[in-house]
Amino acid sequence: MLKWAIFFFLISLVAGILGFTNVASGAAAISKVLFFIALTLFLIVLVFGVLLGVLVF
């Protein structure tokens, strides 16, 4: 999921440089959402791993 966030961030940068502001803002919004979903999932796995004391991966 983090790969997709980076992918949409790069699309946002390229679209912003080329002047496609609507595409850039849409891709930036998608990138932010995917990043925060990935961050939330990471924190949930980290907390459960620490609480259970077992290697999760």
UniProtKB/TrEMBL annotation:
Q: Where are the transmembrane segments?
A: 36-56
UniProt KW keywords: Cell membrane, Membrane, Transmembrane, Transmembrane helix
UniProt cross-references to Pfam families, sorted A to Z? DUF1328
Q: List, alphabetically, the HAMAP family matched.
A: UPF0391
Q: Keyword DNA-binding, does the record have it? A: no
Where does it primarily localize?
A: membrane
Q: What is the lineage of its organism?
A: Bacteria, Pseudomonadati, Pseudomonadota, Betaproteobacteria, Rhodocyclales
Name of protein: UPF0391 membrane protein GPA25_11630
Q: Does the entry feature the keyword Metal-binding, yes or no?
A: no
Q: Which family does it belong to?
A: Belongs to the UPF0391 family.
Kindly list the places in or outside the cell where this protein is found, as annotated in its UniProt entry. Cell membrane
Q: Which domain of life is it from?
A: Bacteria
Q: How does it sit in the membrane?
A: Single-pass membrane protein
InterPro entries reported in the protein's UniProt record: DUF1328
